[in-house]
Amino acid sequence: MSGASGSSDHPELRAALIAALDERAPRVDRDRVAACFDFVDRAHGAQLRESGQPFVSHVVEVCQILIRLLETRTDTTLSLAALLHDVVEDTTTTLDEVEKRFGHEVARLVEGVTKLLGLHFDSHRAEQAENFRKMLLSMARDLRVIFIKLADRLHNMRTLEYLKPEKVKRIAAETLDIYAPLAHRLGMAGIKRELEDLSLKALEPAAYQEIAQRIAAKREEREAFLGTVRTRLGEALKAAGIKAEVMGRPKHFYSIYMKLKGGRDFESIYDLFGLRIITHTRNDCYRALGVAHDLFTPVAERFKDYIATPKSNLYQSLHTTVLATTGEMVEIQIRTREMHRIAETGVAAHYVYKQGGRVDEELDARLGGFVAQTADWQRTASDDEYMEFLRTALYQEEVFVYTPRRELKRLPKGATPLDFAFLIHTAVGQHTVGARVKGELVPLRHELRNGDMVEIITSPQAQPHDDWLQIVRTAGARSKIRQWLRQRRHDDSVALGREMLERELKRMRARPDEKAIEDAAQALGCTNLDQLYARLGEGQVSLTIVMRKLAPEKEGFAERLAKGPLEALGLGRKPAAGVRIQGLDNVMVSFARCCQPVPGDRVIGIVTVGRGVSVHRQDCPNTFANRVEADRKVEVDWDARIGETFPVRLVVYGHDRTSLLADIAKVIAATAVNIRSAGMASEDQTARGVFVVEVPHLARLQEVIKAVRGVKGVTRVERRQRLLRGGPPPPARASGNAG
Ligand code: MN
Predict the structure, then answer these.
(1) Catalytic pick from 90, 111, 555, 703?
(2) Helix, strand or coil for residue 416?
(3) For the chain, percent helix, then strand, then coil, each to nearest 5?
């Protein structure tokens, strides 16, 4: 390594980097940075950006963004990692090599950033949640990873114009969804503002241009007007003996765009006219406020004191809006230089300086506690709940309210007393019946405001309702309510399942002991008895299957008792296999006994309460539109495995003669179809026989029917269809059997 004096293909970039360090970051080791630059420059070699610039210009720019952001607080590790952030991903350099040359800490940062490169947030919800977790966990390990990532994203956004349009849209949308809110949460207002404006420019170029033009058109007028206000304020502050600087504020296109979108008209948007007063002391902030209010009429409801009650990202300022003499409104922010620095670069930057990238509890609490909660939520939350939590943690503004004991609680804007109750304690939330705000009784959906004193009224009998989910705004409360409701549903299912099984055992006169039931549960893949009952109650497993395990000797007994003698010969229910049900896995399936479908029949599934899906033939009278509500019908496809057979009952009419039954049985056997039962009865020379055959599919069944029709004396062969709710089926009269 040739160190600071080394030669480079890009000496101008190298010089600019060193100059930036000289100007703003005296703590950083110049020699190590210069050596690192030479290494990176060689590694990226002739690689170019889409803009045609040498690739190394990108990493230098990322490093410079961080230097400008952190200024004197920039450290060497961060600078080196910023220069190296693409070297593992985009060149043949390995992480090991980085570690050998630049040390463990730098390598760890580069590794963290490299891992984030592959994360996309426009993907499936589940993947998106997972990627979020990864990012926030890497951030929990070292905040500097996110600093580099944000600087990287900012430079990429500044050079978006060289990319393909579809890529531009994706990156800009992701920036607006993820990185701008993240910068906001870290309190990096400057970066957030620029990310938002660049995203708007990429996503809504027409709207962006229009806002730019309208601002430009107003510029002269605006500057003249603001100039007057500024001068008058400056003089008044000076006269009051307050050392302060009055300045204009950068325009934030995106916030103007959002206000226009929200229905406001351009002329009425206050922060078109915004001023900022920077003082030396906190006390001077309040004195400056007095001067401003003395000079111009304040708009009362727009005053906010974020000095006494800082935002969670530690933002502090006084906000006030005053009416200038011309009748126009001017929003003024008043803060100290230190508050200003925190507002622009964030509390996180302060901690990076103070303790490297380590996120401790104190910092996490200031950031809204979401790092710790991410680790926690990873274990308990579903993806949807996690995304909800993040939306709350990252995107929302807060309100501050008090407990009756004057403890300050922070909630997202729009939160209700119910959110507050669950924040105090889960048990308080679950038993809430009402709330008082500032002593007044309010409905549970009342929106809390800054400074409200909230008192929760509970009752031991109270319980969460489904509609509470519509009332709460916080993911925490929502998750606790869902958990409670899930638990109650589970309890209901367990109780129902237990009752079903007990009733069936009684009916079958079976008395297995607890141990036998537990064994059966285990054999069916349940971890305990409750799980078995729950599955029974939810219809995920059938009573028949449980009974088969519990009392195999009694199989079919109940059915045999309940049916006529023909069924007693052995007609049972097919196990649930042979069909695919659209959109439903793991659901109990039975084949309707009324119409006995076989593969090849056009079929439909009907959802039955507690018994899963029952498969019927489409022409079964029990499925006719007026008998079954549309939302209970599901589409079913045959998926018969080889060797699977389905019972079909055939009703045969004919002229009675000797050995008719035997002849019919013979031709059926000749089609290689098993006869499960057969019976025949005659009356006035007319014979009526019922045959239960087991066929693999419709074609074979048709073969059987054709063969039976060919038997001498047979006049009619029908598949039985029985109307379930149209009264009892005609009793079958049995006589004899054949097999
Ligand atoms: Mn990069």
Answers:
(1) 90
(2) coil
(3) 55, 15, 30
What CA dihedral angle connects 234, 238, 241 and 243, to 10 degrees? 60
Q: Out of 22, 23, 31, 89, which one is annotated catalytic?
A: 89
CA of 125 to the centre of ligand 1 (A): 25
Alpha carbon of 304 to ligand 1 centroid (Å): 39
**Distance (Å) from CA 181 to ligand 1 centroid:** 20
Q: What is the pTM of this model?
A: 0.55
CA gyration radius, the chain: 38
- For 150-160, b/e burial (b = at least 16 CB within 10 A) is bbbbbbbbebb
What is d(CA 14, CA 39) in angstroms, rounded to the nearest whole number? 12
For the record, the structure tokens of 550 come out as 């519990």
Q: How far is the CA of 158 from the centre of ligand 1 (A)?
A: 12
Q: Smallest Cα–Cα separation from 600: which of 719, 729, 722?
A: 719
Main-chain phi, psi angles of 130, to 5 degrees: -65, -40
Q: What angle do CA 505, 508, 509 make, to 5 degrees?
A: 80
- CA-nearest of 547, 564, 565 to 556 is 547
Q: Residue 146 Cα, ligand 1 centroid: separation in angstroms?
A: 12
DSSP run (H or E) holding 259? helix 253-261
- Listed residue (285, 372, 399, 401) closest to 334, CA to CA: 285
Q: How far apart are the first and last CA of the chain?
A: 94
Q: Cα dihedral sign for 152, 157, 159, 165? A: positive
Could you identify the residue written with the tokens 């008090």? Answer: 402
Domains in the chain, please, with CATH?
11-205 (1.10.3210.10), 211-348 (3.30.460.10), 396-472 (3.10.20.30), 474-552 (no CATH), 554-643 (no CATH), 646-719 (3.30.70.260)
| pLDDT tens track for 192-229 | 999 999 999 999 999 999 988 888 877 777 778 888 89
Q: Could you report the per-residue pLDDT of 425-455, keeping only the tens digit for each? A: 999 999 998 899 988 888 888 999 877 889 9
Cα 82 to ligand 1 centroid, rounded to whole Å = 9
**Cα 388 to ligand 1 centre (Å):** 29
| C-alpha 68 chain-centroid distance | 36
Residues with a beta carbon under 5 angstroms from ion ligand 1: 86, 152
Distance (Å) from CA 345 to ligand 1 centroid: 21
Q: Whose structure tokens read 């933002």?
A: 315
90 is catalytic: yes
d(CA 87, CA 91): 5
One-letter amino acid at 607 equals: V
Tokens found for residue 551: 């009392």
Beta bridge partners of 401: 409
Query: How close is the Cα of 394 to the center of ligand 1, in Å?
Result: 24
For residue 645 the two structure tokens come to 């057979």
Closest CA to 542 of 494, 488, 497: 497
Q: Can you spell out the DSSP letters for 174-215? A: HIIIIIHHHHHHTT-HHHHHHHHHHHHHHH-HHHHHHHHHHH
Give the integer Cα–Cα distance in Å for 112 and 123. Answer: 21
- Take residue 716 and report the two structure tokens written for it: 């009619």
Alpha carbon of 110 to ligand 1 centroid (Å): 11
Which tens digits make up the pLDDT trace of 173-184?
Answer: 888 878 888 888
pLDDT score of 234:
94
CB neighbours (10 Å) of residue 631?
7
